[in-house]
TrEMBL record:
PROSITE patterns assigned to the protein according to its UniProt record, in alphabetical order: DNAJ_1, DNAJ_2
Name listed for the protein in its UniProt record: Molecular chaperone DnaJ
Classification via InterPro entries: DnaJ_domain, DnaJ_domain_CS, DnaJ_subfamily_B/C, J_dom_sf
Domain of life: Bacteria
Biological process annotations from GO: cellular response to misfolded protein
Length: 94
């Protein structure tokens, strides 16, 4: 399953760079393993870091967005399921 970087940061695909930076700071602070003792905190922290790395770089974000659009066209049902699963994992407590 491909990571959904927007879901990791709790953002929509049309988020601005300032939205991305703000969401990254909030999520990174929340999931930092020194501050959060949840079993999956380190994994979520790494996902947030990776999402920021991709989405804050114009070229990497463009390539990521292009790939997301292509995947939606190639296998929309599977992609929709992955997006929803990622979304629900990000909003439901573990």
């Amino acid at each position: 399953m491909t990571a959904d970087h927007y879901a990791a940061l709790g953002l929509s695909a049309n988020a601005s760079l300032s939205d991305i930076k703000k969401a990254f700071r909030q999520k990174a602070s929340f999931y930092h393993p020194d501050k959060n003792d949840a079993p999956d905190a380190a994994q979520r922290f790494q996902a947030v870091q990776k999402a920021y790395e991709v989405l804050s770089d114009d070229g990497a974000r463009q390539a990521y967005d292009d790939n997301r659009r292509r995947n939606l066209l190639d296998d929309p049902l599977q992609t929709a399921q992955e997006i929803w699963q990622t979304y629900f994992k990000s909003i439901l407590p573990s």
